[in-house]
Design brief:
This protein is α+β, with helices and mostly antiparallel strands. It contains nine helices and seven strands. The model has no long low-confidence stretch (mean pLDDT about 90).
């Protein structure tokens, strides 16, 4: 999916509001000024402190959309339910029906995490395309050498900070393209050499993450993820992409 489901952002913001609201309520109830932070913290109950901690962790995880969400979110809901039970049992200033209703409403917002789109985004990091740097249609001379297999020379099809698509000779017969692709395995380690221009040569190690036959305007070839690149070459690649040097080169 190209865009992050908005429910993750909305819930992250909600968690932040909940975490901040606890000390704010204490300041208003006991008329404590914000600068008296130690006095405020001294009146935060253990259950409220747990809510603040899990809310802060949950907000970060929800915003990043990572797998530990499946553990932190249920923990957050259980802790808030326990806290509301304690308040209803020992504090007569709160209406139990309001406490129950607020928790049910809070839980309802999490139902949207159960949609197939949200569940897939949490479970499968490869579907979080919004985190992947944009690939630019760039043709630069390339040489790809698998650990086992023959070298592939040509020009790239697209390039980003994290990977590249290297086509197999589009002018070769189909059976040769198929044979070449069969020599390469998904997950295989490769060495890669990219000539960004006459003076900027990038060498790195990569991993094959995709291979495909020609489809429409997309040529047959292999998708490579960069796995070992020194800091100098990485900065050179970032500058090359960010400054649009490839536009001048192709002009």
């Amino acid at each position: 999916m190209k865009e992050k489901p908005e429910i993750f952002n909305y819930l992250a913001y909600l968690y932040i509001v909940i975490a901040i609201s606890i000390p704010l309520q204490i300041m208003m109830m006991y008329r404590i000024w914000p600068q008296n932070i130690f006095e405020v913290s001294g009146k935060i109950s253990p259950s409220n402190m747990l809510i603040m901690i899990t809310a802060a962790i949950g907000a970060a995880l929800l915003y990043a959309v990572v797998k530990p969400i499946v553990y932190v979110v249920p923990a957050f809901l259980l802790i808030t339910a326990w806290n509301n039970y304690l308040i209803a049992s020992y504090n007569t200033n709160y209406n139990p029906s309001v406490l129950i209703g607020s928790w049910v409403l809070l839980s309802f917002f999490h139902v949207f995490l159960l949609t197939p789109e949200s569940r897939n985004a949490i479970a499968n990091s490869s579907l979080r395309w919004w985190k992947t740097p944009a690939r630019r249609r760039i043709r630069v001379p390339s040489k790809l050498k698998p650990v086992n297999g023959s070298e592939i020379s040509g020009s790239t099809h697209d390039l980003s900070e994290t990977g590249v698509f290297v086509p197999i000779d589009p002018h070769s017969p189909l059976h040769q393209q198929i044979r070449k692709l069969k020599e390469i395995r998904i997950g295989q380690s490769v060495s890669l050499r990219l000539s960004l221009d006459q003076l900027k040569i990038l060498n790195c190690r990569g991993e094959v993450v995709r291979k495909q036959l020609a489809s429409g305007h997309h040529p047959a070839g292999v998708g490579i993820r960069f796995v070992a690149m020194n800091s100098k070459d990485r900065k050179m690649l970032q500058a090359y992409l960010n400054q649009g040097a490839y536009l001048n080169q192709s002009a």
